[in-house]
C-alpha cells in the first residue's frame, strides 16, 4: 500500500520503498540472501522493480527501504504487514539486508524504530515476527531482538520451488515492550 511513513534514528532511515531503490537492491539480492523468502528470487533491476511493485500493492503492507542515515546508501528493505489497525496488531517482516550489514547494528536499529512506532504511535496490542525455520540466520536475529517464541506452524510456508516449510512465530506484547526496548537500546550503545 502506498504510504508516507518515514522513521529515523540510530544511523538508519526508513522510507517508503520506491522503484528508485531497485538498482541498489539488485546490486546485492542473490539466492543466499533470498533463502527462506516465500516469493521468487527477484533477478536484476527489473526483478527488484517487480518485487517493489508487488510490495507497494499489497494491502496492509507498508514496505520500507532501509537507508544509511548519513550517506543515503540502500541497506535493504523491511515491512510492516498484516496491519490491522482496529485490532490493533501488525507483523514485521519481508526483511532483507545487504550481507555487509548482517551482524551489525543495522537490524536492531530498524526493528527498534519499527517497534517504537508500532507500540508508541499505533498503540499495538501485538507485534509478530516470523521466519522459515530453515532460515537459521533470521530465526537467530529475531531471537536476539528479545521477541518471545510462540511456536512453529508446521507445513505453513510454500517456497517458490514448491517445497513446503515450517514457520517459527515470535511476538512482542505491550508488557514485554519496555524490556525489549531496553535490550535493543543496550545493543545500540545506550
UniProtKB/TrEMBL annotation:
InterPro entries: Acyl_CoA_acyltransferase, GNAT_dom
PANTHER family: BLL6696 PROTEIN (PTHR43610), N-ACETYLTRANSFERASE DOMAIN-CONTAINING PROTEIN (PTHR43610:SF1)
Superkingdom assignment: Bacteria
One Pfam family here: Acetyltransf_3
MF terms (GO), sorted A to Z: acyltransferase activity, transferring groups other than amino-acyl groups
Matches recorded under Gene3D superfamilies: 3.40.630.30
Protein known as: N-acetyltransferase domain-containing protein
Organism: Cellulomonas pakistanensis
N-acetyltransferase domain span: 13-148
Amino acid at each position: 500500500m502506498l504510504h508516507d511513513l518515514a522513521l529515523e534514528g540510530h544511523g538508519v532511515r526508513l522510507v517508503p520503498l520506491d522503484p528508485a531503490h531497485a538498482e541498489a537492491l539488485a546490486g546485492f539480492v542473490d539466492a543466499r540472501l533470498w533463502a527462506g523468502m516465500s516469493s521468487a528470487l527477484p533477478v536484476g533491476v527489473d526483478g527488484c522493480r517487480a518485487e517493489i511493485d508487488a510490495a507497494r500493492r499489497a494491502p496492509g503492507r507498508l514496505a520500507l527501504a532501509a537507508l544509511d542515515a548519513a550517506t543515503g546508501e540502500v541497506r535493504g528493505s523491511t515491512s510492516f504487514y498484516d496491519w490491522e489497525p482496529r485490532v490493533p496488531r501488525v507483523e514485521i517482516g519481508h526483511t532483507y539486508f545487504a550481507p555487509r550489514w548482517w551482524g551489525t547494528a543495522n537490524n536492531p536499529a530498524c526493528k527498534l524504530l519499527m517497534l517504537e512506532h508500532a507500540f508508541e504511535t499505533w498503540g499495538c496490542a501485538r507485534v509478530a515476527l516470523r521466519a522459515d525455520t530453515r532460515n537459521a540466520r533470521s530465526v537467530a536475529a529475531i531471537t536476539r531482538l528479545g521477541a518471545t517464541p510462540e511456536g512453529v506452524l508446521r507445513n505453513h510456508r510454500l517456497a517458490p520451488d514448491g517445497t513446503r516449510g515450517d514457520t517459527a512465530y515470535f511476538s512482542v506484547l505491550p508488557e514485554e515492550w519496555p524490556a525489549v526496548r531496553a535490550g535493543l537500546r543496550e545493543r545500540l550503545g545506550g
